[in-house]
Amino acid sequence: MRHLYHEIEPKWQKKWDEAKIFNAVDFSDKPKFYGLVEFPYPSGAGMHVGHIKAYSSIEVVARKRRMQGYNVLFPIGFDAFGLPTENYAIKTGRHPREITDENIAKFSNQLKKVGFSFDWDRVIDTTDPDFYKFTQTIFLKMFEKGLVFRDTALVNYCPSCKVVLSNEDSQGGKCDICHSDVVQKSKTVWYLRITEYADKLLEGLEEVDYPANVKQQQENWIGKSRGAFVDFPIDGLDEKLQVYTTRPDTLFGVTFMVIAPEHPLIDKYKDKIANMDAIEAYRLECQKKTEFERTQLVKDKTGVKIDGLMGIDPVNGKKIPIFIADYVMMGYGTGAIMAVPAHDQRDYDFAKKFGIDIIQVIKGGDIEKEAYTGDGEMINSEFLNGFTNKKDSIARMIEEIEKIGCGKAGVQYKMKDWAFNRQRYWGEPIPLIHCDKCGIVAVPYEELPLRLPNVKEFEPGSDGESPLADVPEYVNCKCPKCGADAKRETDTMPQWAGSSWYFLRYIDPNNANELASMDKLNYWMPVDWYNGGMEHVTRHMIYSRFWHRFLFDEGMVNTKEPYAKRSIQGLILGPDGEKMSKSKGNVVDPLDIVEDYGADTLRTYVLFMGDYGAASPWNDSSVKGCKRFLERVAGLTDILSGEGMSKDLESAFHKTIKKVSSDIEETKFNTAIAAMMGLINQIYGKGSITKDELVVFIKLLSPFAPHLTEEIWEELGGEGFLSVASWPEYDEAKTIDDEIEVAVQVNGKTREVVKVAKDVDKDGAIAAGKEAASKWLEGATIIKEIYVPGKIVNIVIKK
């Protein structure tokens, strides 16, 4: 049989679609498996090979589960709100709805051409009002519980996209969308109080099966720390500066304080400050810097001493200078820090530059050269002197500051509340109304979805105002509470909104009354296995875990955590080993591979190219190698002979069943495929294969190359679809070789390798060894014969 993929692949894709064999069945008696992949943003560029790799892991697992008798939910949808589509709409003068529909159709066609076994009857689209009705519902539930608030703050602003960005969307000081530099801007922003759920998000990590590095990144992002809040009086004023520190035991080493340039204390007491001109000039410079630039550890230390205000160390009464510096942010902690230059390198560098005292309070290192950041005996610290255990010294200092009333133990988090709005058109409308009499009022649930108006102009205003603000028929409304004239909120939600709960909608995609029925949630949730990229670990995953835990607290879902297991795929690099990009000309179009080599070749190659979790460069010769492998599989039909399992290959087949079965579960897809390549070499070495052996082989290969294997199944007279036939099982006893290889040594040097029965005794092993090494023993006197069971025979001789 020939591998005629141009004919085979469309044929089976059509048959699968017509028979709906991949459709999940609610409330089936079979055990359930819910496999999830990160749904794509449907860009105009279409799918890239990274999508193929990202979806292929759960694709293979889902196909294996069906063959193991599971009721499988493996859905797909489209995360379709977002700036790229809107920017393209502005550029071309077309409506984002029209562009989105085109892109979704294109993506769907591409996914089907690769043969993914998605349930196409459960497709969702985050821009569909029937979907975002419930995005708005969840938002209003949070609003009712006080988790939605509005505040004026310095925000990350992209002048190019004209939107406010969360910290997660502007990492490295760059816009995550257009990669332009981000600036700081004072703006009124909607926030979600994700910090209220910090502890629950940390606790939830103990219940799930995530890779260690995923858990670590989430823990680091949340950034829980234990320490103390300490009040530093301002000399001569009835005023205090509160700081948070994880090292209250170093309070005797504080020699200066630093506050954020935006700290309200400065304006409150500007009449007492002699150098306000210098401070204002420094403030202007800080406004030009992004948060990323301000908080970089490796940069020149800048700042201005406040002439007129002095702090007082509460534990020893010493007066200490107060500076402003860009590396202290109002949005982090209290906007003020205590500086202990002897034991913090940034404080040390700052102190050296500005000629500030450095007082060592922990013995160790050489503070003439650098800060000492290790542990050691406390010195120069009055009642702490002699303490050698950091935990004890911290506890003693907290006891002291609580006794004298200048501080208390506390907890802080690195994670900030989630900036949850965009000043753009193509997003979910925020369902809130501004009333002069009633304040901020929720749109009634019965009026949801609050739909986007159909407009022709999408360009945001120069001041970052949403284009919806220029649509009076949308903006002007009546207050739901008092009936007076009111205005709608014109900002829209960020793209992360829909993806924070989409996995729930797959369970009940056509429910008009609730996001999903509790009966169906009880059957399907949690997601059993979720695969995605590392780039979404500290954004999408944390956001969706937050939303899900909130819904659990509200009694709207049945599990605390949405995802029981998470796996990660590595990048596919260009043939040059660099990240794929159009500008580098190293992008590989997956449909070109489908056209030139077939979808099964593409599917096999993206999982064979290396460790699934690691980045791997594209290699055309390896693609061709996978194509040759599949051609050899097709050729097995030409060497069919007999039925049953042949003795020559029985052990090899059972070993391969065991390995492929195990490797799929451990995402070791490359070694699973390698095992099948090794088996086919043995088959061709023998020169024939029985029908039963071929059935086992194509079942193992089916999740990877389903089109070709379905064709062979049909050729063999198999009933129904191979895709839902039973997964092969192995006999553990038959995975153990009847014979083993033993090295034969003469005077400790390996001379031969001999095969012996696995249960051979010492005499038998030595006899076989002596026969194999007979030419090395000629004319020699045997001094000693040694057998290490299962490993070596060693003959000690003397000539």
Quick overview of this protein structure:
By secondary structure, this protein is α/β, with parallel strands linked by helices. It contains 26 helices and 27 strands.
Sheet with the most strands?
4 strands, parallel
Radius of gyration: 34 Å
Q: What percent of residues are in strands?
A: 15-25%
Distance between the termini: 61 Å
Helix content: 25-40%
Q: What is the arithmetic mean of pLDDT?
A: 93
**What overall geometry do the principal axes of the alpha carbons give?**
globular
Q: Total strand count, please?
A: 27
- How many individual helices? 26
Label the structural class.
alpha/beta
In spatial order, strands of the major sheet run 2-1-20-21
Q: Give unreliable regions as ranges.
A: none
Topology at a glance:
Elements: H1 5-19, E1 32-37, H2 49-67, E2 71-73, E3 77-78, H3 83-92, H4 96-114, E4 124-125, H5 129-144, E5 148-158, E6 163-165, E7 183-192, H6 198-204, H7 212-222, E8 224-233, E9 240-245, E10 256-259, H8 264-268, H9 276-287, H10 291-294, E11 304-312, E12 319-324, E13 336-339, H11 345-354, H12 390-404, E14 407-413, E15 418-419, E16 432-435, E17 439-442, H13 472-475, E18 476-478, E19 485-488, H14 496-499, H15 502-505, H16 518-524, E20 529-532, H17 540-553, E21 566-568, E22 572-573, H18 590-597, H19 599-608, E23 616-617, H20 620-635, H21 647-665, H22 669-686, H23 691-701, H24 706-715, E24 739-746, E25 749-757, H25 762-772, H26 774-777, E26 781-788, E27 792-798
Helix pairs in contact: 1-24, 2-19, 18-19, 19-20, 21-22, 21-23, 23-24
